């Protein structure tokens, strides 16, 4: 059972127009134990329409508040999230599976977006442009887009919500959020803290339930002006199509197929540590986790031996246990996908260096795995595995590896290790990705623009640029001034 300092953070109702509503129907379970943690409502089109209407009524008064007033409420939300960091982390590990240390880190990461955009709320500046017409002025003003919808995944149950909502709320938008069915409890705890922080009724609403029905309302209701989604590319494409019917803005953070390249001249130990982080964070279940490791001939065997040695030492178990660095995968479907990818690679000639099977703990646990001798004919090359499997490819030249790295419809994150400064700029500029880690395996921070190119998505989250999605630019030409 979950033991929280503040048990009232564990909610099992949805939040619409400032009220907690709905009966608990859909079970949320702990992927490590199978224990049912709570049941949440199964809402559909009708309740989502009510939530959109509430957000629509709340929009004008919220947008008319001064930037400083909105900023202060966001700041209070940040303070409350950090004051309850431990409870939210416990809820997150229980429903999502990531080790407690990672969950605490995600809560702080989630809060950082709220803090950052509380500050940015006061800096949504306009422009004045020298007018080509006599006696006139040109003024450009930024205004909030209106009601926004956010559909979020289970792998980052807190950060994907705040990374979308904080800039929008700061700009004066209102929200309807649909969290993933595996992880609604973290989201509900955040909303409970938002209520305590003082967001007026209707400004932030959350519904759980039938994804297709909820998504349909979010993408077709004329009052919704922006739809933000993080998840798989096929669902992102569907939402984009649906949103076209009323020409909504869309922000999409979709799948990745991140390359991690180690050149002969790399710092070997740093590259091994980087590969561990880039591959096994959240059990390989992040869109920026590396899906393909390319290692140059001269350093290949040494890298594989050191890397596999580290991976073999990883402790697997329930994320609340001390020393555990690899928890369960989100569900058995995810384990089956990982098994399919490993079996396909082995059938086509790859060698299992370490791992390769379901873990002795059973059900949702999979052994952290390293495969060598991987070729581009295998499933792991073309599909996001989203699990703890590191396929290692051998390469010879820089041109060859850049071509292999770019040979995918995806373009979210890429990483490479090299001490050659010329190569660093050359390769970074050639990689067709929205984000590139150079001798670094961590990219996410509230101060930098997170997002992809090609089929990995549209728009950016975080940083100054993350605000662009939530504002419309209005140009005013003021004539007849006589000056
Ligand atoms: N970019 C990323 O961070 C993520 C990528 N993925 C990738 O996707 C694969 C599958 O994972 P999965 O969880 O099924 O991802 P999905 O894209 O199916 O789910 C993400 C979110 O979208 C919702 N959703 C699904 N279909 C619709 C719809 N028609 N309308 C509105 N919302 C919808 C889901 O709700 P519901 O579950 O109720 O359908 C969930 O909240 C993973 O293996 C991974 O490769 C997954 C998660 C995050
Ligand atoms: O997997 C995702 O969609 C979010 C990545 C988390 C991050 O590093 O910001």
**CATH homologous superfamily designation of the largest domain:** Aldehyde Dehydrogenase, Chain A, domain 1
Under CATH at level 1, the class of the largest domain stands as Alpha Beta
- SS class: alpha/beta
Query: Overall pLDDT, averaged?
Result: 98
Q: Which shape, going by the Cα principal axes?
A: globular
| Strand coverage percent | 15-25%
Bin the helical content.
25-40%
Distance between the termini: 73 Å
Number of alpha- plus pi-helical segments: 14
The strand order across the widest sheet is 14-15-16-13-12-18-19
CATH architecture classification of the largest domain: 3-Layer(aba) Sandwich
Task: Detail the poorly predicted runs.
Answer: none
Number of folding domains? 2
List the bound ligands. Answer: NADPH dihydro-nicotinamide-adenine-dinucleotide phosphate, glutaric acid
Kindly provide the radius of gyration, computed on alpha-carbon positions and rounded to a whole number of angstroms. Answer: 23 Å
